[in-house]
Design brief:
By secondary structure, the protein is of the alpha/beta class. Helices cover 31% and strands 27% of the residues. The protein is elongated. The chain binds zinc ion (ZN).
Length: 376
């Protein structure tokens, strides 16, 4: 599924519910990533809350809250950041007291219901001191790419689509795309790491969400030579089947989401780097930029075709040639990038196949063989 990411803005949204209406807390979910712990609570629209932090204590106070008994137990989550949770009622306000292992920065905001979540959601993120730990090194990277013909070791970025609060597409047997993509990604990474002269880096290693621009920054910061994003497709029609490959289209920025991201600060950093490559010579900048983009697109299509050919040997192809699309994860300047839709999770037979370890290994191997033949 390719329509992913909710753009999370660090806004605290407080709106007002009637005083006599209780805010039901339907569910709690916790996601731990190397960067943060995300607490998600399914709530009613217009939840009134505030967050107070004091050293290693976080007090999340929700006004007029009603806690469902079946969700009570889910609250007592422990991870590398949360040591202990307590609940305290003060008149109409329910306090969730999190004792943390050290002081953390806290961001909170609400999200509206979507296709995957029918409730409004209250999100609390606990971060370490530095939120952005991956530096943007596009300028250096582009210069290096243009000036050296061969890199010492080929770094292949493997991106397991979705994760954490974003399950991706969901099959008829309720299997989630995010789990399948991670399994295939890990299998592919193992194959690459056993290959001389190649090294795989995963954008995520567990069940947590990584923002799309962060995925790109990981690729750039690691000086990646290829970027491969792994997904499973989904449509309403159950019979749709087979693999497809997407590469970046220059006109892809017309999608609503791509536009949103381009407007965000991340995108400014993202594409701003090249502007300062050679100060004062805009003409030369443009040539270099066009060159890196065109070369990247040709290489992406070549890589896509090679992988597709291998995918055709192990299963159906949904589309016989690489498709063009403007997905944000493919916007990795100068790095050949493809998005692999491994099969349709919405097709019951393919869903079964996607959950089978042997089949996952076959898919990983087909992508791996495609990478090898691209380099030959
Ligand atoms: Zn997907």
């Amino acid at each position: 599924m390719r329509q992913f990411l909710i753009l999370c803005l660090g806004l605290v949204c407080l709106s007002y519910a009637h005083a006599d209406e209780k805010t039901t807390l339907y569910d709690f979910r916790f996601w731990t990533s190397p960067e943060r712990t995300r607490i998600v609570i399914d709530v009613e629209k217009g939840v009134q809350y505030h967050v107070n932090t004091n050293a290693d204590k976080i007090d999340l106070a929700i006004n007029n809250a009603k806690l469902l008994s079946q969700t009570y137990d889910k609250l007592f989550y422990q991870d590398q950041r949360i040591q202990k949770t307590r609940i305290k009622r003060n008149k109409d306000t329910l306090h969730f007291l999190f004792k943390t292992t050290q002081p953390y920065q806290v961001k909170s905001y609400t999200l509206k219901p979507n296709q995957k979540y029918r409730h409004h959601r209250l999100v609390i993120d606990l971060y370490g001191k530095q939120i952005n730990t991956v530096p943007v090194t596009i300028t250096k990277q582009v210069i290096k790419k243009l000036s050296t013909t061969k890199l010492r070791k080929k770094i292949i970025l493997i991106d397991a689509g979705h994760g954490g609060e974003d399950p991706g597409a969901i099959g008829h047997k309720r299997s989630k795309e995010k789990h399948i993509t991670l399994k295939i990604a890990k299998k592919l990474a193992n194959k690459i790491n056993r290959t001389k002269g190649m090294k795989a880096i995963l954008t995520r290693r567990g069940d947590y969400y990584v923002g799309l621009s962060k995925r790109i920054r990981i690729a750039q910061a690691n000086n990646a030579s290829l970027f491969i994003s792994i997904h499973a497709d989904s449509v309403k029609r159950k019979s749709a089947k087979g693999a497809s490959i997407y590469t970046l289209s220059e006109r892809g920025g017309s999608t609503k989401f791509a536009k949103q991201l381009e407007q965000s600060q991340n995108a400014v950093d993202q594409f701003g780097g090249i502007e300062t490559l050679i100060k004062g010579d805009q003409y030369l900048n443009k040539i270099l930029w066009d060159f890196s983009r065109k070369d990247r697109d040709i290489q992406s299509r070549k890589l896509g075709a090679k992988i597709l050919k291998q995918m055709g040997k192990i299963g159906y192809l949904h589309k016989q040639t690489p498709q063009k699309a403007g997905f944000v994860v493919l916007k990795t300047p100068a790095i050949p990038s493809v998005l692999v839709e491994t099969a349709f999770i919405s097709n019951p037979q393919e869903e079964k196949r996607l959950n089978n370890a042997k089949e996952q290994n076959k898919i990983a191997n087909a992508i791996y063989q495609g990478i090898l033949s691209y380099y030959q």
